[in-house]
């Protein structure tokens, strides 16, 4: 009987699905890298979220591993080249938490534009600082969306629903498809920077997207731009972001992701015009139930019948 490990905290539905499909399951959440190394050779499949890291060393020790399933989108915690070299399939659930992540992106944009966290702290502290928290309206302004994958597309639709003009950049999307979504596309990022009042990024972190927005880009942007990132830390250069927020060139930022995570402290957290959340992109009950069920079904399908989905 194939045996799977659930290595990160996820909905108990995952375990139920595995058992219903006749697989043996161990749930071992919060293992240290050494503990994982010591037991990884017992499993045919592993279900993870973002906490468990599977570097080359863990993959090398996984003598019977056939499939790694990420309940979520990003697989940056897995050494995917090392896995493919061993013939281990790495799959994710690209749709299960897209709506939830898109909703967070829009929430961060609105919270940043209206200083919601700082105003909440002030009001709860017994102050009544109406003039301190003068905000910005989004309607009628231009939003730039970089990356029109499952999340970016939903964010673009929602921003359009707030009466923003949405201009998008995605070198991989079919232009007709974008136009049918009612979006204006630009071919070059240089054309996007000076136009946007709000920028939100929805790409993976890779050599093309790391530091995509650096000091030179910030200099090309409108005075008072709002930046949002619920994709991956490092797409905005954090020093450039900090300098822009301090100078006022960037009005506010809504951030869910950071170069170093967990981020227990950060110079960006010292700024009132930063709305910061602890990588909550996929964290709603609905999304977590969906991704847990989906990844358990996908892993089971592969181990039981060899069916590959979302690899
Ligand atoms: C994802 O990659 O699925 C999101 O960043 C959310 C998460 O990590 O849980």
Automatic annotation (TrEMBL):
The keyword Amino-acid biosynthesis applies. Belongs to the D-isomer specific 2-hydroxyacid dehydrogenase family. Pathway: Amino-acid biosynthesis; L-serine biosynthesis; L-serine from 3-phospho-D-glycerate: step 1/3. It is an enzyme of class 1 (oxidoreductase). The chain holds residues 1 to 311 of 527 of the full protein. Catalyzes the reversible oxidation of 3-phospho-D-glycerate to 3-phosphonooxypyruvate, the first step of the phosphorylated L-serine biosynthesis pathway. Also catalyzes the reversible oxidation of 2-hydroxyglutarate to 2-oxoglutarate. One of its GO terms (molecular function) is NAD binding. This is D-3-phosphoglycerate dehydrogenase. It catalyses: (R)-2-hydroxyglutarate + NAD(+) = 2-oxoglutarate + NADH + H(+); (2R)-3-phosphoglycerate + NAD(+) = 3-phosphooxypyruvate + NADH + H(+).
């Amino acid at each position: 009987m194939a045996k799977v490990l659930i290595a990160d905290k996820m909905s108990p539905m995952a375990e139920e699905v595995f058992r219903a499909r006749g697989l043996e399951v161990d749930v071992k959440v919060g293992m240290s890298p050494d503990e994982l190394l010591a037991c990884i050779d017992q499993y045919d499949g592993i279900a993870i979220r973002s906490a468990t890291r599977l570097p080359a060393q863990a993959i090398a020790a996984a003598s019977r591993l056939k499939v790694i399933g990420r309940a979520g989108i990003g697989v940056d915690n897995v050494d995917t080249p090392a896995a493919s070299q061993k013939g281990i399939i790495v799959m994710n659930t690209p749709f299960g938490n897209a709506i939830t992540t898109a909703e967070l992106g829009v929430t961060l944009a609105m919270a940043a534009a209206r200083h919601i966290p700082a105003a909440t702290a002030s009001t709860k502290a017994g102050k009544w600082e109406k003039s301190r928290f003068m905000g910005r309206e989004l309607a009628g302004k231009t939003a730039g969306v970089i990356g029109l994958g499952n999340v970016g597309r939903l964010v673009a639709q929602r921003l359009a629903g707030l009466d923003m003009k949405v201009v998008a950049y995605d070198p991989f999307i079919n232009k007709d498809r974008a136009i049918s979504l009612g979006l204006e596309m630009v071919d070059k990022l240089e054309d996007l920077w000076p136009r946007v009042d709000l920028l939100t990024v929805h790409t993976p972190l890779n050599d093309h997207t790391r530091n995509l927005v650096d000091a030179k880009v910030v200099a090309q942007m409108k005075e008072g731009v709002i930046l949002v990132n619920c994709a991956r830390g490092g797409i905005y250069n954090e020093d450039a972001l900090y300098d822009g927020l301090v100078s006022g060139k960037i009005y506010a930022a809504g951030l869910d992701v950071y170069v170093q995570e967990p981020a227990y402290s950060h110079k960006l957290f010292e700024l009132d015009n930063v709305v910061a959340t602890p990588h909550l992109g996929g964290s709603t009950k609905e999304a977590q139930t969906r991704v847990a069920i989906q990844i358990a079904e996908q892993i089971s399908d592969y181990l039981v019948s060899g069916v590959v989905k979302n690899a």
